[in-house]
């Protein structure tokens, strides 16, 4: 593979990451609405929405530095999130639980995406992109740790507050 091919691949991956961030901004807002009975989770989701908006801006900056534009995001990543949401609601019809599980799994996906982008950017000598990915990965790992540390408590609280209705 040529360097040009790798550069084009990096652009496509960044465009995919941008589309994912934009879709997640919407999803995080919806998740926060479903979590109003859980002040800590509600606040954490709102904080991560702000982080996600910043991530989208950082990825857009990377794309522009490479001479590319962010994609039209209407269909790309929102299709993934919709499919994930539909899969979860297939066995968990409760929007609060489905949102929480999709939120946790989307952090895993984002971590994998940014690790891949960082690896390719490093191969291409794009140190600023590597640094930006590292910054974003720190936020994503923090949010994933929050979900991992609190998911059982969130579910228990949902049961206690009778929020697990369909």
Automatic annotation (TrEMBL):
Gene3D superfamilies: 1.20.1260.10
Cross-referenced InterPro entries: DUF892_YciF-like (IPR010287), Ferritin-like (IPR012347), Ferritin-like_SF (IPR009078), YciF (IPR047114)
Top-level taxon in the UniProt lineage: Bacteria
PANTHER family membership: PROTEIN YCIF
Protein name: Uncharacterized protein
UniProt lineage: Bacteria, Deltaproteobacteria, Bradymonadales, Lujinxingiaceae, Lujinxingia
